[in-house]
Amino acid sequence: MSRLLGLAPVLDENTRLLVLGSFPGVASLRAQQYYGHPQNHFWKILGALWQQPLTEMPYPERVAALRAHGLGLWDVYQACEREGSLDADIRAAELNDLASLRQRCPRLLAIAHNGGESFRHAKHTQALGLPVYQLPSTSPANASWSFERKRAAWAEVLRRHGLAP
Known about the structure:
The chain has helices spanning 26-31, 42-50, 59-69, 101-104, 116-119, 122-126, 147-160, and strands spanning 3-5, 17-21, 71-75, 77-81, 91-95, 110-114, 132-135. By secondary structure, the chain is of the alpha/beta class. It has a single domain (3-160), classed as Uracil-DNA glycosylase-like domain (Uracil-DNA Glycosylase, subunit E, 3-Layer(aba) Sandwich), CATH 3.40.470.10.
């Protein structure tokens, strides 16, 4: 099994809410884009909340929209071994430097974990002294949640921190 490296964070000094996934899936790693699987609901949810056609925009424009709204992206794992894309298959994972987030993002108000595998590491993000949320995974593997139910849960957290109307 080969060692996989994650994506660089999308965050800066203006990031107010950080979404932490677990580790990019095969499609995301291949494209070198967060939430690169076409069936992942991440971009569709944000597009609905911000009334922007994010799924139709080139990736650099999607990232620019995130930054403009104060939303950052990263993963809890910087590297791991895994065949396929399922979180359950992650082995020998190395955590990203989550403790550095307050320095990297001085305006950070909260952290939202995208799914259960990411939330397993909430003790690290809670140590930063900010609100921490577990959001339903936007992955197509999370079929027990409808798109509308996911959108509503995400909307609540984004609105709470001024990132959605």
